């Protein structure tokens, strides 16, 4: 008999009672459990230790096993890493001993109940009106966009916000390892990978879903995060007529993003010459939006770059279109000061913008 989600949610709250107050606190973005006696949270972008603790290691393990049951996954000594989600959509990563030497480790990433909008990003200073207009043009012209950044830099939130620019008449297919993307468009299909059962059967990988998606008439494909060999399938989808695709990847700078994708593609079981792989990546990725978490805990877009293909030496060519420039730190609040400036470089598709009846922001145009 299938247990209703509402019952599961209530049961899980019982097992997670020591951290339940933080699950209800909208200011709390991350809960980090380092063994049953040590709980940290991130609130307002800052880490702080709490007095919360679980009754025992067994109590914490019971909570982890119930989370695994909720998403239909297995966690054990043989399979010590769990990627899952809570009923409210919070993302969970748990690691059991002996992989976790000092006891069970759990990280719960919480997402705002209200989806982050582009207007809110403007309000928080994460981007400017000029950058907003340009990114909208990129989405409308079906440029393939990679959102890159470190852990907790706001990649998924930005991806959700950018989806608001997709015309409501288009069909989007979202593919993820563990569901956390919540797009703002009505015609969206959500697919989720599944690990094998304890006997090694029934696995459904992101690569499997990507291949199936190509037969589902998508106007756009969104891969929540590229973190393995499926990156090559996404790159091939981007170059096979599925423009306007969106995805995220862990990388520190725009150039690193392309090299990171290259490394992920090499993890595929498809053997391609490096030169051919680079040519595909350079052709597939049109725009890179780099995010970063600042010292004050705020998230900012720090770079917007266009990929111009490969140079004569076979190296990636990037043109910076926007760059974040820090002007100082507020002496009273400690808030990082600065803004995202156009560099003065025009995208190579400037004529296409005009042809589509759109207009580049005046601040981007040469004076």
Question: Short description, anyone?
Answer:
With 367 residues, the chain is α/β, with parallel strands linked by helices. It has helices spanning 5-15, 20-23, 57-70, 118-124, 129-140, 155-162, 206-213, 230-238, 254-266, 274-284, 350-355, and strands at residues 28-34, 39-43, 46-49, 81-85, 91-95, 105-109, 145-149, 172-176, 188-192, 220-223, 246-250, 287-293, 299-310, 316-329, 336-342.
Protein model, in words:
By secondary structure, the protein is an alpha/beta fold. The chain has 2 domains: 5-109, Beta-Lactamase; 118-362, P-loop containing nucleotide triphosphate hydrolases (Rossmann fold). It contains 11 helices and 15 strands. The chain has helices at 5-15, 20-23, 57-70, 118-124, 129-140, 155-162, 206-213, 230-238, 254-266, 274-284, 350-355, and strands spanning 28-34, 39-43, 46-49, 81-85, 91-95, 105-109, 145-149, 172-176, 188-192, 220-223, 246-250, 287-293, 299-310, 316-329, 336-342. A 9-stranded mixed beta sheet has the order 9-8-10-11-7-12-13-14-15, with helices on both faces. A 6-stranded antiparallel beta sheet has the order 3-2-1-6-5-4, with helices on one face. A hairpin with a 5-residue loop joins strand 4 (81-85) and strand 5 (91-95). Helix 8 (230-238) packs across helix 9. The longest helix has 14 residues, at 57-70. The mean pLDDT is 88.
